[in-house]
Specification:
Beta Polymerase, domain 2; about 170 residues; single chain; 8 helices; elongated; 7 strands; Arc Repressor Mutant, subunit A; alpha+beta; 3-stranded antiparallel sheet
Length: about 170
């Protein structure tokens, strides 16, 4: 769906990276390594997104960092679009509906780092959770989204990155 609207794969990856969570940030060489792409391709897209006002450019630590501009009028819409594209909203709604006393739902792994790898990892914390329902919901979500879904009931070790999607 989103690939037909945004034809640049690099731009789509950057939008996912920065708009899956407003706290995500990155610098040119780090993003190029992460995406396994040339710095020139990344630089071009970062410049265009910054000029359009979607990203903020910050200098520090001898590097130039980029992050989503949460003050942009389309920030909420873009973030919602990215969440819908990834299918995160549907999974969270399913989990909260019938899983028990859910205290927190967090996105882990590649998607928490803004990478569309096709493997969604969710951490569900709470008391008296219905693990059988959660496993069933993960299976349904996999078929619906055509992506692998892994659910964790305790934080895996090591935990690289985490984006809290719901907190009580």
């Amino acid at each position: 769906m989103l690939q037909s609207l945004i034809t640049s794969k690099t731009r789509l990856k950057l939008l996912i990276k920065f708009f899956v969570s407003a706290s995500n940030r990155g610098y040119l060489r780090g993003i190029a390594d992460e995406f396994n792409e040339s710095t020139n391709a990344i630089r071009k897209e970062l410049n265009q997104l910054t000029e359009a006002g979607y990203l903020i450019r910050e200098e520090g630590e001898q590097k130039v960092f980029y992050r989503a501009n949460a003050g942009h009028t389309l920030f909420g819409s873009l973030q919602g679009l990215i969440h819908n594209f990834l299918g995160v909203d549907q999974i969270v709604d399913q989990v909260l509906e019938r899983a028990g006393d859910v205290e927190q739902v967090a996105l882990l792994g590649d998607y928490a780092q803004g990478l569309d790898s096709g493997h969604i990892e969710l951490l569900v914390l709470g008391k008296e959770l219905d693990s059988a329902y959660l496993l069933q919901a993960a299976g349904k979500a996999e078929k619906l989204l055509n992506k692998k879904v892994s659910l964790y009931l305790k934080a895996p070790d090591p935990l690289k990155s985490k984006i809290v999607l719901y907190s009580k």
